[in-house]
Automatic annotation (TrEMBL):
PANTHER family: ALPHA-KETOGLUTARATE-DEPENDENT DIOXYGENASE ALKB HOMOLOG 3. The keyword Oxidoreductase applies. Keywords: Dioxygenase, Oxidoreductase. Residues 105-202 form the Fe2OG dioxygenase domain. This is Alpha-ketoglutarate-dependent dioxygenase AlkB. It holds the Pfam family 2OG-FeII_Oxy_2. It comes from the Bacteria.
């Protein structure tokens, strides 16, 4: 049965019980926009295999990545330096949508392409030194719906959420200091998911 609280409860909701703010806005694009952006992102982004150095050995992950921004930002990752490509009109439109909905600003974006559920991302927090401290990170999903998990760094409490096609999740405040997040692999998902995380690089 609905009570008054359910009726006035609206997006966004903070999905974390403490020590951070992460707002889930649900689907913020129409089905037609989702299809248009998915096709664009999947086919037009110059995807590259991600590189990592593990035990001194350079390996390439199956997941693909791309890095865009308002300037050719330099970033160092596993001891390799890369430069951001400049916004395309489509990425600029997606950035503006995130800015409008979240009332925050962003100047760069890391894109991830997971071909199916066998690809994911291990627990981490996005606290790189070049990122604005306590800056918001806006995460868009296009394609397959996937589970996303948070784990509290001290209490180990876990929060799971399902990120649907066309949805927006915003991590802000002290989320990165106190919580890890991951995209767990799953055998259930057979189709690709594109994720965009808009961030603020501080110069
Ligand atoms: O794919 C996702 O939803 C998360 C990606 C992520 O955490 C990251 O790029 O830092
Ligand atoms: Fe992350």
């Amino acid at each position: 049965m609905n009570n008054l609280f359910d009726e006035i409860q609206d997006f966004p909701i903070n999905i974390l019980p403490k020590d951070g703010v992460t707002e889930y806005y649900g689907k913020v694009f129409s089905d037609a926009e989702c299809e248009k952006y998915y096709q664009y992102l999947f086919n037009q982004i110059p995807w590259e295999n991600d590189e990592a150095v593990i035990f001194g050995k350079l390996i390439y992950t199956k997941r693909k990545v791309a890095w865009f921004g308002e300037k050719e930002f330099e970033y160092t990752y596993s001891n390799r330096t890369k430069y951001a490509k400049l916004w395309t009109p489509e990425l600029l439109a997606l950035k503006q949508k995130c800015e409008e909905v979240s009332c925050e600003t962003y100047n760069s974006c890391l894109l991830n392409l997971y071909h199916d559920g066998s690809e994911g991302m291990a627990y981490h927090s996005d606290g790189e030194k070049d990122l604005k401290k306590h800056g918001a990170i806006a995460s868009l999903t296009f394609g397959a719906e996937r589970k996303f998990s948070f784990k509290h760094k001290v209490s180990k409490e876990r929060i799971d959420i399902s990120l649907e096609n066309g949805s927006l999740l915003v991590m802000k405040g002290t989320t990165q200091e106190n919580w890890l997040h991951r995209l767990p692999p799953t055998t259930k998902v057979k189709s690709p998911r594109v994720n965009l995380t808009f961030r603020t690089i501080e110069e």
